[in-house]
Amino acid sequence: MSLLRNLLLAGVAAASLSGMAYAANDMSPEAIAERTKPVGSVYTAADLEGIVDTAAGNSGEPAAPRSGEAVYTAACAACHATGAAGAPIKGDADAWGPRVAQGRDTLLSHALNGFNAMPPRGACGNCSDEEITNAVDYMLEAL
Ligand code: HEC
């Protein structure tokens, strides 16, 4: 009985060893390429994001929406910090009062689509709707 058992075990061991040997000696082009590929060819998740962004034509636009403060500083402050072109200055409650009374939706619509001397999106070509909204909310929070 134990002889038979040992023979069986030996057979199983031999079979699995030959299986491992076969895998290591796989000379198919795919197996060789896989074993010999340079470590540097491995993409990180960040690389892939960049590739996907570039393929979608989005390069230059960050994946996460910028904060209201960042967008305001970059695209709105030129007029809304100075009053240029008659823009209501951030924090000037008198100038903003009647505008706020129109409701936030109207303000957002004017910011996105333009309103008199207020250019659509504040002329920010790479600002998303969400970023313009963030910038409007940032100015409203200052009142
Ligand atoms: C070139 C100057 C300029 C820039 C840049 C600019 N604005 Fe304006 N904005 C104006 C002017 C002028 C008005 C007032 C228009 C009017 O009431 O006739 C205005 C008005 C507004 C209003 C009030 C609209 C209303 O209904 O009363 C909002 C909201 C606004 N801007 C948001 C923004 C945001 C957000 C940005 C940046 C992404 C921005 N603006 C950039 C000139 C500018």
UniProtKB/TrEMBL annotation:
<dbReference type="GO" id="GO:0005506">
    <property type="term" value="F:iron ion binding"/>
</dbReference>
<dbReference type="GO" id="GO:0009055">
    <property type="term" value="F:electron transfer activity"/>
</dbReference>
<keyword id="KW-0813">Transport</keyword>
<dbReference type="InterPro" id="IPR009056">
    <property type="entry name" value="Cyt_c-like_dom"/>
</dbReference>
<dbReference type="Pfam" id="PF13442">
    <property type="entry name" value="Cytochrome_CBB3"/>
</dbReference>
<protein>
    <submittedName>
        <fullName>Cytochrome C</fullName>
    </submittedName>
</protein>
<keyword id="KW-0249">Electron transport</keyword>
<dbReference type="GO" id="GO:0020037">
    <property type="term" value="F:heme binding"/>
</dbReference>
<keyword id="KW-0479">Metal-binding</keyword>
<dbReference type="InterPro" id="IPR036909">
    <property type="entry name" value="Cyt_c-like_dom_sf"/>
</dbReference>
<dbReference type="InterPro" id="IPR002323">
    <property type="entry name" value="Cyt_CIE"/>
</dbReference>
<keyword id="KW-0349">Heme</keyword>
<keyword id="KW-0408">Iron</keyword>
